[in-house]
């Protein structure tokens, strides 16, 4: 419990995402031990036979530990980006403030996944400790041991072993290989890297917040990393995503007076007038 980062119970009830696996069951148990009023929500994606039955495991655990239970179902069509689409559908049902059972092992995997995607510092900072990720200082083996100690039988999700998914190959192939090459457990090292990177990103964001992202002269005079952070924050879309690298480069051309406007995804456009940038809806052709 001393390594968990749960919110203050006085802040009100919480939603816990509980799939039935060891991590999420441990989340439910520890959240209740922290004195939180918990609603355990099981989301069935309908992607494999018998998945709906796993809700019964969650319902039983919720009843045993004094939590409210709710079952939800989402429909995910087979195809590309299955993991990402399932995650978005699950998040839409759970809400933005739901607690999840991600552990230090998940954090290490996220660092490597984002590295392979070509992510910058924000991606390598991975998940931020504290709500909604209160278990990031725990190891996956500890959540399994907690369930065993309480005679709980978590659900085993076969999709966690499916080699089609990058995260699974990182979990079962890359991390064991890194452990063999380095002669030590890479998970704490990768989690520590995320912590260090996050501190740098936070400092950069503080500097960027003091910079007017619409002032082209100020942007050109600032350190490129600070100017870039200010622009990316200003240009986040309605889902909170920063512009792509190609979009960002087009906006920089406007800042440098190399172009008068740049088109962005979602029907948005950045233009320059009188040395200042404007973010507007792109005119229809």
The CATH superfamily title of the largest domain: HUPs
* Content-based structural category: alpha/beta
CATH C-level label of the largest domain: Alpha Beta
Order of helices and strands: EHEHEHHHHHHHHHEEE
* Shape type: elongated
Main sheet: strand order? 1-2-3
Q: What is the residue-mean pLDDT, rounded to a whole number? A: 91
Total number of helices? 11
Can you tell me the CATH topology of the largest domain? Rossmann fold
Estimate the strand proportion: 5-15%
Number of domains: 2
User: Unreliable runs, pLDDT <50, ≥5 residues?
Assistant: none
Describe the structure using short key phrases.
single chain; 285 residues; alpha/beta; Rossmann fold; 2 domains; 3-stranded parallel beta sheet; 11 helices; elongated
Commentary on this structure:
There is one protein chain. The chain has 285 residues and is of the alpha/beta class. The protein folds into two domains: 142 residues, HUPs (Rossmann fold), CATH 3.40.50.620; 72 residues, no CATH class. 46% of the residues lie in helices and 12% in strands. A three-stranded parallel beta sheet has the order 1-2-3, sandwiched between helices. The chain has a three-stranded antiparallel beta sheet with strand order 4-5-6, with helices on one face. The longest helix has 24 residues. The chain is elongated, with a radius of gyration of 22 Å. The chain starts with 13 loop residues before the first strand and ends with a strand.
